[in-house]
Model the fold of this input.
Amino acid sequence: MITIYDIAEATGYSAPTVSRALNGLGSLSEETRQKILDKAKELGYEPNITARTLTTKKSYLIGVIYDDTGMNMGFSHPLFSPVLTRFREKIEAAGYDLIFLSRHFNMTYFSHANFRCIDGVIIINPATNTPADFSDFIKANLPRVSTNSVFDGICTVITANEQGGYEAAEYLLKHGHKKIGYISAPVDGISTAPAERFNGFRTALEKYHIFDDSLYELCSDWGKESGAEAFGRLIKRRKDLTAVFVTNDQLAFGVYEYAKKNGIRIPEDLSVIGFDDEIASEYLGLTTFRQSTTEIADIASQMMLDQIDGKSVPPIIRCRPELIERKSVKTIKGFRLF
Done:
């Protein structure tokens, strides 16, 4: 078995210098570090994780909390999947591995984190019935980053949801709509996005004194069928509706499905704006918001590494969503607010 002493002998550097190079530590020149790494590869060196953990008092493991109980899309989720993929690239480049934390075997997320001796945890999407689990994380001296929900005491990198909701309402207003509905995903105490997007949407409409709470409809979950059911209730109650802003694209697909079955044309009879920019959204011509998954993941990984290094981080960072204009919004002539 090749050791750091073998590499030291082969390169002429000291064992501590070799150790720093292999672990990405110290202020070595890039030339020195690369020479040591190349020799280690040539000799077939395999790191001893147990020894490294004992030496550095670190596991080099980052825990991931990811339970998609709302949309049941798993690793094909339009936001969580690319965020996780990019975060993994960045965190592995820094010498860490990821491990998923579960709530199986009567363990909380926090107890599983302790069991695995992780160095930090990223909260991408927890189970919807677990808000109490995070009281332990909030009190713990453990690097933590959240990328979808806001928790007091945990650094959060998230989309500027209120801004997106505000811009959606203004966009529809600019196109002449004044009877505008909002279809919300569940407000469950975990994901803050539905309430935040609605708050921005409502603020924009209240600015022009046309907000109407009878145009709000709440879904039972985040899926397409729930979106169809919610829109069905809304349109039966308010047949004068001309446009609707929907919390996410899956729910918007449900609006499309109901509309097709009931002879409602999009955008001729109904204008629709979604959120997420899923692959199918382009096919349907859905105007929607694209969340900056790369920016969210890059900032989240840096916030994680900064905390591991003992640096302070801001409580929350918001990344602006991008409106992707397609063909699902009609301009109504004869009505302008600005």
Q: What stands out?
A: DSSP finds 13 helices and twelve strands in the chain. The longest strand covers residues 61-66.
